Amino acid sequence: MSTHIGAAPGAVAPHVLMPGDPLRARWVAETFLEDVTCYNEVRGMLGYTGTWRGERISVQGSGMGQPSLAIYATELFTDYDVRSIVRIGSCGALVEKVGLRDVILATGACTDSGMNRLRFHGLDYAPVADFGLLRAAYDAAQARDDVTTWTGLILSGDQFYSPRPELVEPMTDHGVLAVEMEASALYTLAARHERRALAICTVSDHLVTGEETTALERQETFPAMVEIALAAVTA
Ligand SMILES: O=P(O)(O)O[C@H]1O[C@H](CO)[C@@H](O)[C@H]1O
Ligand SMILES: O=c1cc[nH]c(=O)[nH]1
Questions:
Q1: Atom 4 in ligand 1: residue holding the nearest Cα
Q2: Which PANTHER family does the annotation name (predicted)?
Q3: Cβ contacts of residue 196 below 8 Å, gap of 6+?
């Protein structure tokens, strides 16, 4: 057991898919994995281990925001020796060319968070994806014709309801495609612990057009993203 994960040693697989929503974790486990066991219910932050095409895979909710993800990612790396984490999240599109339900493979994650400013004494660190995972996810995405995939930068914002929405503009002026709330911490922690990480996000809301998906869709759909993540992590 670690402080926030009630799993026995060895109960978590070396490769973990990590949605923010614990109910998405349950849906992924029930829909994609075989021989599933639930290893964590602490704080309702569900975690499951099963197999996918014969490989052991876990899926663990992270909660919303970088401080919450950092707790789960740190404990998975340090207490359960997890080797790779692939975030499977939802995000908001910031530019018109990216459409609702498109999938984004995040090459890097900009942030407005104070977490890395504290870690790097005010210097700007560039949190980036593991290249091997990114390449495998890109290959898996290219092999499909049911989803439009983008490869590029995202923004990990601390506040879903931002009091300074105008600050997004310099980001989009410099190629940022979408906003979510966790990838920057995940990439930073993976680097710190010499592990692999990737964030794959499906566009659930469009901040330019105002289109949005339903809460149930955010919880229980987005299968293309999950299949791309499973292919990448087992490649
Ligand atoms: O759908 P998840 O993975 O939770 O991701 C996005 O959704 C939440 C906000 O609604 C934030 O966690 C954001 O990053
Ligand atoms: O608009 C959105 C949608 C999902 N996640 C976010 O952080 N923002």
A1: 20
A2: FI09636P-RELATED (PTHR43691:SF11), URIDINE PHOSPHORYLASE (PTHR43691)
A3: 83, 84, 85, 130, 132, 133, 190
Ligand showing the shortest atom-to-Cα distance for residue 65: 1
Q: Among residues 8, 10, 12, which one has the least CA distance to residue 59? A: 12
Rounded to an integer, what distance in angstroms lies between the CA atom of residue 133 and that of residue 235? 8
Beta-strand relationship, 84-93 and 196-206: parallel
Which residue is associated with the tokens 């949190």? 127
Angle at 157 between CA 152 and CA 162, to 5 degrees: 130
Pick the ligand that lies closest to the CA of residue 182: 1
Half-sphere exposure of 94 (CA within 13 A, CB side): 24
21 is catalytic: no
- The residue type of 223 is P
CA distances from residue 110 to 89, 179, 191, 226 in whole angstroms, order as listed: 16, 9, 15, 23
Token digits for 21? 């929503």
Chain segment 177-217, per-residue pLDDT in tens: 999 999 999 999 999 999 999 999 999 999 999 999 998 88
What DSSP string runs through 2-55?
-SS--PPTT-S-SEEEE-SSHHHHHHHHHHH-EEEEEEE-GGG--EEEEEETTE
Q: What is the token pair recorded at 111?
A: 């942030």
List, in sequence order, every beta strand (DSSP E) within the chain. 15-18, 34-40, 47-52, 55-60, 84-93, 103-111, 149-156, 176-180, 196-206
pLDDT digits (tens, 9 = 90+) for 82-100: 999 999 999 999 999 999 9
